[in-house]
Amino acid sequence: MNLKKEMYEIEDSLKQEIENISHYIFMNPELGNEEFKSSKYLINVLEKYGFIIEKNYCGMPTAFRGEINKGSGPTIAFLAEYDALPGYGAAKKPGHACGHNWIAASTCGAAIVLSKLINKINGNIVIIGTPAEETTGGKVPMVEKGIFNDIDIVLQMHLEGQNNVACSTLAIDCIKFQFRGKASHASSHPEEGINALDAINLMYAGIGCLRQHITKDARIHGIITYGGAAPNTVPDFTECKFHIRAGKRKYLDELTQKVINIAKGAALMTGTSVSYEKFENSFDELKNLPSLQDIMVKNLKEVGIDNIITSGEGASGSSDIGNVSQICPTMYTEIALDIPEKCFVHDEAFLKYVDSDEAYDKLHKSIKAMCGVALDIFTSDSLLDKIKKEFKNIK
Ligand SMILES: [Zn+2]
Ligand SMILES: [Zn+2]
Fold first, then answer.
1. CATH assignment at residue 199
2. 119 alpha carbon – ligand 2 mean position (Å)
C-alpha cells in the first residue's frame, strides 16, 4: 500500500484517541506555565505509544520533549501548545478560546500517527510541549538554549477564520513602565506633590502623537495597571504595560526605543523618575518558506481543504513560533473553522467551536496534511536540501 494511504488509515484508526486529547484539554483549561494536568495527560498518551519523554524540559515544569528515533534521516518536530486564556463566562474562568486544546491534539496526534510508520521511514519524530504561548512564550527560552539546532523542520497549525499558509505574525516587545513621584494632599498641599499619574497621561498622549508616524503594520497598545491609591492623594507611584508590535524586528527595535523615549520625556515633564523592563519575552516575526508552503498546500488539497491563502494578507497577532522560525525551517498553518457566526480566536463566542464536531473534522484533516508533509520530506532525496537552501538564502 502507498505510504500516504496507509498513514490516512492509521489516522482514521486513532480518531477517538485524538479527539479525547482535544476534549480533555478543553475541559481542563489551565493558564500559561500552570498547564500541569494538560502536560501530564499529553505525556501519558505519548508514552503509551512508545515515545521517550523528557519531562521538565528546558527547566520549565509544564514543558516536555517526546521522541521516536529510527534513522539517520530528517528530524521533524511538532510543537504542541496547551495554555488557556483568562476571563471567560460569568465566573471569568480560564477557557480555550484560542483553541490550544486543538493544537495539542493535532500535534500529538500527528506525532503518534507517524510513530506507527517509524519502521518505514528513515527519520526521527519529535514532539515538543511548549508552555505559555499566550504569555511568557515558552519557545523563547527553548530557542535561546539551542534545542532546535538538531531539528530540520517544525510543523504547527492553529484554528482561525481562514485557511492560510502565508500567515504573518508581528514581532512584539512587552514593556512595563513605572513612574515615581511624591505624594501630597491633592487639595490642601498640591504644590508639594509630584504626580506620577500625570506622567502616564503624558506618555499616553505622546504615544498617540507617535501613532501618526509609524508604519501601517505597527501596533502600540497598553493599559494602566496602577494609577494611584486615592483621589485626594497625589499619586507617587503609577505603572503601565504596553505591547509594541511591528512586522519586522529591525523596525520594532527602533519603535520600542521611541516609546521608551516618550516615557523618559513624560518623566522629565513631570519631574518624576521612570524605570522600565520587559514583563514578557519578546517575539520575532514569522518567517515563511515558499517551498514548505507549496508542500503544505498540496497536502491540504489532498485531504479536501481548499480556499487557501498563499500570499501576504496582512499581519495579525504575535507568537513565539516566530522566534523558532528565525532559526529553523517552520511551517505554521492556519485552518478555518466553518462556523455559523462571525467570531474569532479569543472571543468568548469562539469557545463553543474549538472542541466541536467541525473542529474534529478539521483536526483529522490537519493531522493528515501535516503527516503528509512529513512523509513527503522523509521520502524525498532532495526536498529537505531545497528547503534548507531556501531558508539560508532568506535569512
Ligand atoms: Zn491566542
Ligand atoms: Zn493561539
1. 3.30.70.360
2. 33
